[in-house]
Fold each of these.
Amino acid sequence: MASLFAELAIILIVTFITSLIMNRIKQPLLVGYILTGVVAGPIFFNLLSNPESYEVFSHIGVAFLLFIVGLQLNFKLIKEVGTISLITGIGQIVFTTIFGVLLNLLLGMSWIPALLVAVALTFSSTIIIVKLLSDKKGLEQLYGKISLGFLLVQDVVAVIILMIIGTLSKGSGSWTLIVQTVVLGVICILGIFFGAKPFLSKLLKIITPFKELNFLFILAWCFGISILFEAIGFSLEIGALLAGIVLASTPYQQEISSRIKPLRDFFIILFFVFLGTQLIPAPDTAIVFGSEWSYIVQTLGPIAPQAIILSLFVLIGNPLIVLVLITFFGYSSRTGFLAGLTVSQISEFSIILVLLGQKAGLLSIHELSLVTLIAIITITGSTYLVVYGEKLYSLFGPLFKKLEKKKVKDSLQGIQGQKHDIGIFGYRRIGPHVLREIQHTGLTYLIVDQDPEIIRKLKKEHKEAIFGDVSNIEFLSEFDFKDMNMIISTIPDAIINRTILQNYKHLNPRGIIILTVEERHEAIELYELGADYVIVPHHLGASHLETLFKEFMDDHKRFEYEREKHLGELYEERNYH
């Protein structure tokens, strides 16, 4: 016991050091965890004297990970993000699987491994992408919303596939038994969901104020449902996933998730460390000191060409598939390009799928090592692709200009010869507020937005609107600014706004231009470049709150009026989000 505790302490110290290095070079910590496993494994320091104990830890980590994934599966979001996310998510999975199978067959795999590895290559890491998009403020942009939508679709498909593979891993040998097990699982889910949900809501309402009791219930529920589903033929991990899905429908979803996350993080670290120890199989004989790297080269050499080819397929092929799908449905190449970069890595689901496939006897350690190596390569590479997506688009964007030229001409053709007093660039966020005030003045206006769905809704309401991507220099060069007395950009992107400002002021120096940004320093920069006014949402919000406080702090009826007015505006705007 003391030896295990000492080993665990050393492993956590090494994990911290490697993770610190990953953090400094802007890489996800997951890569550091896997590298720790390689260092702690049998090739280098051989710190795991009892691998079975760490394997148990790893199973608990996967269970907790899938439990929280289940908690965060909000099926209403698929409807909210629109048809494009659903089509792109399913289309990307289908096309990646087809091309992946063909590529795997060419690389010498047999049919079953080729299919399972291809499916593993379709799933992208929601956790990593949300973190990267959050850091670069891409979650509120159109491509970010579409990306979150099809990542959710991927998660739902992954759940279904993991259920099937999990059934196979329990030894159900025929498709009839698999179907029976899945049907029984669905019946159990529906029974728990509809039968236990009222009881769960009441119980959680009682115990939520008591932190220790609430935490104990979450553990008991997760492990109890896991054991139940293992008993009917699924794996423990699938049971944990479904336990999370059932609790996701309760009002206490966020509370439960926050309670369990620290424990999940601890065990998931051990899962990826243990996975790293499995990346390179242990040698049959002891390795002479100094010959470790030659053994690694010798072991990984046979799979390295496959890993590189399949990693390039994920890093380049997956983004191209998404780009083609999104532009096919009328979105700009910039939106398609940036959204495509979010699928340029494989996810935790990919590794779990391969692990379950190995447990079911469908895959070997060869495929596990291959997919793990692909995960390291693609997660590392995609981090830079997503972070520097805008710069990459400026380099490769001209390759997609042929797609854009026809779009630009078609969208601008309908407004040739028309005069508009005000141009509104971007409608999703504060556009409805702006348009409401403009309509009161009787001035003519033109709305420009890069979301075809928004344009269709606006035209259905008989509002002057055209499709256009104002980040596209060609669009701005073709756009007639000269007769517009005012431009209002609601797009919170400093680079795009700088481009709009320079183009507009060049053609119409006396015109008024109002822009929107998120940060104070960006507003100052735009003012210095000649902007007439820059909207900074949090600054305006603070000013409005100050006005509310000063003018009618004691006037309850006025607050009720403001509340009803604001609520009505929010309901109206919901149609465009």
Note: Residues 175-207 form the longest helix (33 residues).
Amino acid sequence: MLVHAIRGVQPNFEAAQVNILATSDNHGNVHSLPLLSQTIENNKKDIFIKAEDPSTLNIFAISGDWFINPSKRGYLTKPNMTNGDIQLQFLTKFIGYVHNQAGRNSNFDTVFTMGNHDLDAGDRFMYKVMNKAKMKTLITNVDVENSPGIQKMMAANENIVKSVVYEVQDDKDPNLQHKVLFLGVTIPSMKFYNPGLLKKMSFFDDCNKKDANLTPADLQGTFAAVRKEVEAFKEKYPKGAVVLLSHTGAPISKMIRDEVPQINVVLNGHDHKNLTSLKGKTNINSLGKDNEIVKSLNLHFDDNGDLETTDMNTFFSKTTVKDKLATNVLQKALEESFAKDVEPLVSLTSIAGKPVTLDYGESIRFQNSYLANWLTSAVKRSVRTITGDPNVIVGIQSSIIRGGLKDGSNNLDIMKIFDGVSEDLSNIQVGKIRGDELVGLIVENIKGNLKAPKRNTIIQWSDIQVNRTMISKILEGKLDKPFEEAIKIRNEETNEFEPIVLHNQYKIAIGEKFLVKDDIEWPKKIRGRFVSMHRTYDQLLRSYIASDDINFQLKVTQKTQEQRIL
């Protein structure tokens, strides 16, 4: 347990406090950092209260997923740099910016815990981040004894810790220091999120389960790791405050709270929500996503050393006046780093010649989506051109789609589209399965999606119409029909959807990450019949939109606007 002391000077008779600025699930959206940073600057007096007082500690907390898909390339301005290179560069700039807002002479530090997407390129990339970024990386639920890479790094780098204790000098009593413990927990399902990519790092309770399916029985190692740090802290400092950075989603954060009720504040990531939950003395704050919000918390200690109050504010970046960005330091850095990437590149119109947008939203994970329709059709064209097979059907797990398109979209927008899956697991696999097997695969997917629509995402198909509502009714016993009646396949000659033929062979193309899954049945049954195209979704999409006959002049057709999920 690292102890970090904040210097004390002459008392000034003002409250001892900790200011925490918290964010999570930025997902590599460096292009929106200027707006977020300006939001912080506009509200810094409410965020960093009495920031430069010696009895104030200022903390910038990142509850995971600052990074996403770090190994992807494709920048036009800096073609040799990866997503991770750029995102790390801007993390350093952003930490410096936040420190400036708190006052360079203030007591300031940055704490970070890993999210699942931070590990999209495996543990090697995260080791690079831990060594280069000026922050403390909290690894409370990493199984250090079985993580040789972490052991080596912890021995050489004091900023990689299970937990850290900060001491804040009381404003009146020179002999009183207020203590605050910070811990960090990562969703432990690495075998599910990034199978095979962690070589020298292991988490307690690592399993091949979606977080929506995790129960307290699955998380005993995680609970024990948190409890050990908190109880050791409380034994030494009974009045100290405890702050947990939890990249697990609110349901698991609540499980941790129930198991370790001494925690005062949970800064929760992973669920992409803006919610607050209070039970007992534990306040759980979910931190949203994609730089849309930032939260500030102010912990106040009384003269007896007890945590007196915890105040919380939410600031929305969309309310920031954009014309203030002209002089923003991060905006200038963005323009310099991405000069070619921020230039308008795409022309997007409808078949009627009218401007349209293909908007991204979380509803893509469980509903019909024009964006998903367009993307599956675009990737399909590249797949069919490369394979020479005019009948390949493309499936895309909707969770890997993270951005949309509009008229004037730039290269950064294009790079964002397929950012929800590691490039290491994004290669397209092509194989044949029978109609009855395809029905089984689709029904299994819909069944999981119905349990947790935003977490257990639906597969969007280029030429298959899935009646999700009918499958739901059949599963509930409200409709006595076979599942195959809920699934139709496009007739390439008539362009109409027709009933699936159970004994027919269908060739499908789908991502490697789906086929390596072991937590569901169908991937295991069919994966042996698939071969890799050695091309990713991103590469196939770029191949389509940059082809000679398209040349970034994109159109939304009637096929894009059809109902493929009912």
Note: The first strand starts at residue 2 and ends at 5.
